[in-house]
Design a protein that fits this description.
The protein is an alpha/beta fold. The protein is built from 15 helices and 8 strands. The relative contact order is 0.07.
Length: about 325
Amino acid sequence: MILNARDSEVLKAWNAELIGRVALKRLVSKDERNGRFEAFCEELHANASKVDVVAATGKEDEPPGLALEGLDVVWHAIPYGPELPPFLEALSLISRLPVDGPSEAAAASRGSAWLKVFVAPSCPFCPNAVRELIPLFVKGSVRCSIIDAQLFPEMAASYGIKSVPIAILNGAYRWTGETLASDVMAILEDPALILSSPEALERMIKEGQAGNVARMILEKNETPSTFLDLLRHPEWSVRLGALVVMEEIADANMALARVALDQLWGSFADQDAAVRGDIAYLIGELGAGDSAAWTARLEALPIGADEQLDDIVEEAISKLRSLSQDGPV
């Protein structure tokens, strides 16, 4: 038995209030976990007779799951216990859909957008995280997959999932904890919006998404103040991630990186020794295009207050001189 007595009560009450019938497609695969989904569907129908379960072969290499007919969402998870109510809320939406499902306009706007939400039965925050995203299922604006990270650990491992809930959009944008449907829609409509959110950028940096941050900045061709603030962040780990972003930007667009360097220098004197050391390091890495001016600025800095900072500044000056002798970069 997968469902307990409380689950059965919830299902019977939901079934009694359901208007019309709803269709649920059980995606069949050769995966050994297929049997658990089959058993769940049998128990589901036994307690909720208005749910018509149809078995269908899933796409090649697709794991077993529960596809909600008329909605572009698949549960690669067994919804029982606290996970059952949000699943039933989503299932109820089917009976209120237009006969033809989501509009053609919604389907066209969806494109290749794919939101994967990793959950776990033992997670107390996961049911509400799924519930917050249900509006997306109706709009048909994004393909959604609800994935049990414990049942499908290989899928979680492929995204480096260490905790849940986590939502991942198009393999690039991540939200840890509850994710609002409005947040996902905002990114779908204008990915550059994330650059205006210091919290979002910091989260991406901490989750190891320096490459995605760099890509967005390069596409915008502008280094926003929200990103520059990360290079002055009090946490070393955040600054380190931001330094990696700067180096990736420099590899693709040195002129853009040097504009950011000028902006950082404007606040150099106001920073603590650790942040000044990071800025001095960047000057050594990126300042070769104007090495004489940068060398003069670094040489004019007072010394003796922080030995480690003095060493970094001296190393940056040495590198600038070396690059200057090798020719312009």
